[in-house]
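Practice problem: predict the structure.
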Amino acid sequence: MKLAKILAPTDFSKFSGFALEWAAYLAVCMKAELILLHVIPEEEGRIVEEIIGEGAIVRIPKGVRQNVVDERQKMFKEQFNMAVSGEVQKSLKVEEILKIGNPFLEILKIAKEKEVDLIVMGTHGRTGLAHVFIGSVAEKVVHHAHCPVLTIKHPQYKFIAP
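Answer:
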């Protein structure tokens, strides 16, 4: 299997860090481009209007939204530097993408647009009622992705082909 592009979505959790480490390693071994993606959930990323008391509307200023974006850009670099050694970083071609939207849908959209060959992502490994009620972005991606997905739950991993 030839891998030219590997997508590594992150939510900045420790599981995403493990997955990023694997994605970088695979990208170096396969001489593939590494695409890092973080999706800010819509409710965090949009300007919010709230009605309080007597019908008064409070608008959260645009600067708050930009602060969220700036913070996530910084977190991208911090997680990348923690998960991937400087030597490996020098060997990689990396593209960073930051989106606002539904994480599951944006991961699938970017995977298609960028024609990725593999998605490597962390999973929290929820089970039981938490899994039933909360669901899993990783599980949804596995079931709907056009390409194979490697899910990482350190120290375990699972390769799932479509």
